[in-house]
Every structure is written in structure tokens, then in C-alpha cells.
Amino acid sequence: MVMESIPAEGSKMRIQSYKHDGKIHRVWSETTILKGTDHVVIGGNNRTLVTESDGRKWVTREPAIVYFHKDFWFNVICMFRDDGVYYYCNLSSPYACDDEAIKYIDYDLDIKVYPDGKYHLLDEDEYKMHRSKMNYPKSIDEILKHQVDELQQWIEHKKGPFAPDFIKVWHHRFNNVN
């Protein structure tokens, strides 16, 4: 049995994403925890080493704030680029956290949000392929469809990590710890 833990503010944690079949998908080597509660984890990283399931490695190009919530089947990466803030939203299981890492199951679907507020649902073909290959249960399919709608509402209403104040506060806090 894995003991859940709340990451301490200021600590460094890995982020590990898995696929539905339990295989590792991607690992971010280090994220600075800016806030940890029993429901939310907010972290920041910049120039972080990322390792893919096939062993390929790359380094993130810009500072980012990551947002995880226990009650929602998505997580959000807010990336700070010269022309504005971009968001990459992963449809995923709610996160789990232990002493090793923040962990979640990546369910393929993503939403990319541009600085002008426009957004696109991505990777529907990958989702269909993996849903068949890994036998996603009907319940997961229904949850994810509902969560895509929920996430789109958050984006359109500038809720949670999409709120301008969220970005200002957490970007400032991340800059002050690094």
C-alpha cells in the first residue's frame, strides 16, 4: 500500500506520468513545490530534464507552473514564453503523491490554450488507439468526456490556473524561490 503524502513547500519532487497499462510514460526530474495541500499541488520548474518512456531525454525550454488537483481528471502546465502564457492541459487521473514523486495516469487527450484564449483539443486519434489497445473501461471514457467539458469551462471562465491572478501570484512566487 502506497502512503499518500503532502509535498512540503520548497521541496523538490519528480513528476511521473504513466499510461493506463501501468507503464511509465514520462518523468520530469525536478519540480519545486510552491504549494501542497491534501487537494492541490502547485509547482514550478525551468530547464528541467524530461525522460520519455523510450529513454529519449530533453530539457524544458521555459519556466512553467504546474497545477494538480485531487478532484479533477486533468492537470495544467502554464508555460511562460516571450509572447505570453501558453497552457498545456493533460486529461489524466487525479494525482497521487508519495515520497518518490507526484504521479498520474496520462489519458492521451490534451488541450492547448494560447495567449489569446483560443484553445484546441489534441490527440483524439491517440486516445482512440490507446482506448482500444489498453481496454479503457467505459467508465473512464465517460469521466474523460465530462472532464474535457469541465476543463473547457475553466478555460472559458478563466477559473483556477487560467485566472490572471493565479499566473501572477505563482510565477512571482516561483521566481522568488529560484
Automatic annotation (TrEMBL):
> How would you classify this enzyme at the top EC level?
hydrolase
Which sites bind Mg(2+) 2? D108, D110, D123, E126
The alphabetized UniProt keywords are: Hydrolase, Magnesium, Metal-binding
Pfam families assigned to the protein according to its UniProt record, in alphabetical order:
DUF402
Matching Gene3D superfamilies, A to Z?
FomD-like (2.40.380.10)
What does the record give as the active site? R26 (proton donor)
Which reactions is this enzyme annotated as catalysing?
A: a ribonucleoside 5'-triphosphate + H2O = a ribonucleoside 5'-diphosphate + phosphate + H(+); a ribonucleoside 5'-diphosphate + H2O = a ribonucleoside 5'-phosphate + phosphate + H(+)
Instruction: Enumerate the InterPro entries for this protein.
Output: DUF402, FomD-like_sf, Ntdp-like, SA1684
The DUF402 domain extends over: 21-159
E.C. code = 3.6.1.15, 3.6.1.6
Q: Which cofactor does it need?
A: Mg(2+)
Q: Where does Mg(2+) 1 bind?
A: N90, D106, D110
Specify the domain of life of the species encoding this protein: Bacteria
Q: Name one GO molecular function term.
A: nucleoside diphosphate phosphatase activity
Write down the SUPFAM superfamilies for this protein, in alphabetical order: FomD-like (SSF159234)
What is its biological role? Answer: Has nucleoside phosphatase activity towards nucleoside triphosphates and nucleoside diphosphates.
Q: Which HAMAP family is this protein grouped with?
A: Ntdp
Q: Which family does it belong to?
A: Belongs to the Ntdp family.
Protein name according to UniProt: Nucleoside triphosphate/diphosphate phosphatase
Native source organism of the sequence? Jeotgalicoccus halotolerans
